[in-house]
Specification:
Elements (H helix, E strand, L loop, with lengths): L1 H24 L1 H6 L23 E7 L4 H14 L3 E7 L2 H10 L4 E4 L5 H5 L2 E2 L2 E11 L7 E2 L1 H8 L17 E5 L4 H10 L9 E3 L2 H10 L3 E6 L8 E2 L1 E2 L6 H5 L6 E9 L7 H11 L1 H9 L7
Helix pairs in contact: 3-11
Length: 298
């Protein structure tokens, strides 16, 4: 009886050792099951790494006045995220808002506040910078300063010669932007001259206005503050120069927001678009805004 018990215990011990050996041999396979990583390496695509680097495309469309800002912001964002492509197009503010509400672009650029109807269509106003509108004349014009009333009368066609304002005996040539332009919309709204302007020329871009005024004796026009150069004269308004400091101080009355509109809140956009807005609001993004000659917003 005792011999049978001893034999049984011995047999059980051998089987236990054999099973332990098999388990040890198969331990590496069980530990790496479901992973393609070589032994000793950290598996790729872990939760910590997922989404660490962005990729994809962001599309923007809209205001020609925002070309300098949108291009610079796109380039700066792509420099930080090499897997991302940002493609801005410049079709005018109204067209940009129509595109974003239609879902054909991610962001609609507008150089004016959004209208109630645009907001009702789902567009959300995200102000990314403040711009001043500079009133410009050809460099030979001797008039230096205009009151709001004088500027209003010029654009309504009530002042037809610069001599009426103490300038040369020269016809006033009123230059403006085309219908749908954010710059025109903001300018006319701020002066309260909507649908009352008497334009000699209505041009389809900021650059075109700048060039036309520079080359036309007696011309007057309006452009975004950030595109001013020495080819034209910037008029003072109510004795105040068109500068960022004066706009911040509330002294210069022709200023407007630069808007990057989305369809729905930013929080409802894709991870990529949200990351773009995070960049715009960051210190790096504010440097881009300042570098474009614009005023940053908090």
């Amino acid at each position: 009886m005792k011999k049978n018990i001893v034999r049984a215990l011995a047999l059980a011990g051998v089987m236990t050792m054999a099973l332990g050996s098999l388990t040890a041999c198969g331990g590496n396979d069980a530990g790496t099951k479901g992973s393609d990583a070589p032994s000793g390496e950290t598996p790729k695509n872990t939760d910590a790494d997922a989404g660490a680097e962005l990729s994809g495309t962001i599309t923007l469309s809209g205001s020609t006045s925002m070309e300098k800002l949108a291009t610079a912001m796109a380039e700066a964002f792509m420099a930080e995220h090499t897997g991302v492509t940002v493609t801005p197009e410049f079709t005018g503010s109204s067209a940009g808002i129509e595109a974003v509400t239609a879902g054909t672009v991610n962001i609609g650029n507008s150089s004016r506040s959004l209208t109630d109807s645009e907001k009702a269509a789902g567009a959300v106003e995200n102000i990314v910078a403040i711009d001043g509108i500079a009133v410009i004349a050809d460099k030979e014009n001797t008039v230096e300063d205009l009151t709001k009333e004088q500027l209003t009368k010029i654009y309504k066609g009530e002042v037809k010669n610069w001599s009426e304002l103490g300038g040369p005996n020269e016809a006033v040539v009123v230059i403006g932007r085309e219908n749908g332009s954010g710059t025109r919309g903001a300018f006319e709204e701020l002066l309260e001259v909507e649908d009352a302007c008497k334009y000699a020329n209505e041009l389809d871009s900021t650059g075109a206005v700048l060039a036309k005024v520079a080359s036309t004796p007696g011309a007057i026009g309006y452009v975004s503050l950030d595109v001013l150069d020495d080819s034209v004269k910037a008029m003072k308004l109510e004795g105040v120069e068109a500068t960022a400091d004066n706009i911040k101080a509330g002294k210069y009355f022709l200023s407007r927001p630069f808007v990057m509109a989305t369809k729905g809140e930013i929080s409802e956009q894709s991870e990529l678009v949200q990351a773009f807005f995070d960049f715009v609001k960051s210190d790096a993004g504010k440097k881009v805004v300042a570098g474009a000659g614009l005023i940053t917003v908090d």
